[in-house]
Every structure is written in structure tokens, then in C-alpha cells.
Amino acid sequence: MKHRDGPLIDELLTAECLLLIHIAKTLTYLRLSNCRLGLLINFNVPMLVQGVKRVVYRQ
Questions:
Q1: Distance between CA atoms of 9 and 59, rounded to whole angstroms?
Q2: Is the dihedral of CA 37, 42, 45, 46 positive or negative?
Q3: Which of 7, 15, 36, 56 has the most CB atoms within 10 Å of its CB?
Q4: How confident is the model at residue 59 (pLDDT cuts 50, 70, 90)?
Q5: Which Pfam families has this protein been placed in (predicted)?
Q6: Which structural domain range is residue 16 located in?
Q7: Long-range contacts (CB closer than 8 Å, 24 or more residues apart) made by 31-37
Q8: Would you say 6 and 35 are in contact if contact means Cβ atoms under 8 Å apart?
Q9: Within 13 Å, how many C-alpha atoms sit on residue 5's CB side?
Q10: What is the arrangement of strands in the sheet containing 37-42, beginning at the earlier edge strand?
Q11: Strand, helix or coil at 29?
């Protein structure tokens, strides 16, 4: 997905809750693709806004 500040990595999940392994996996995707911004989106929540986590890769 293209973001106004550059590329954006989206990770779509259906998990009980977001775990550190999900964040670590997204950070790996960001590092390997030279992107800075990622979104973890978990659809297994009552309200979608509760399942969105912004992940920023800082070198």
C-alpha cells in the first residue's frame, strides 16, 4: 500500500490477540523491504479500531 510518506507494509491477522512475535515479524518485513511504517490489523476484535497497531522501524 502506498502511504503519503512512502511505502507501507500491511499485516492482516485473525488472532486471539497481537503478540510480540507478530510485531517482530512485521519489523522484519519492514527491515527487509526498506520501509519505515507498517500496520498490524487484527480482525478478531469487537471493534476494528481495537485491532490496529502501528509499527515503525527505526534504524
A1: 16
A2: positive
A3: 36
A4: confident
A5: PDDEXK_3
A6: 2-56
A7: 31/57, 33/7, 33/9, 35/6, 35/7, 35/8, 35/9, 36/5, 36/6, 37/3, 37/5, 37/6, 37/7, 37/8, 37/9
A8: yes
A9: 7
A10: 2-3, 6-13, 37-42, 52-56
A11: helix
- Read off the C-alpha cell for 25: 515479524
Identify the three-state secondary structure at position 10. Answer: strand
13 - beta bridge partners? Answer: 42
Which set of grid coordinates corresponds to residue 42?
487484527
Which residue in 46, 55, 1, 47 sits closest to 23, CA to CA? 55
**For position 4, what pLDDT does the model report?**
62
Domains in the chain, number? 1
Taking CA atoms, 36 is separated from 11, 18, 39, 45, 51, in Å, by 14, 20, 11, 26, 20
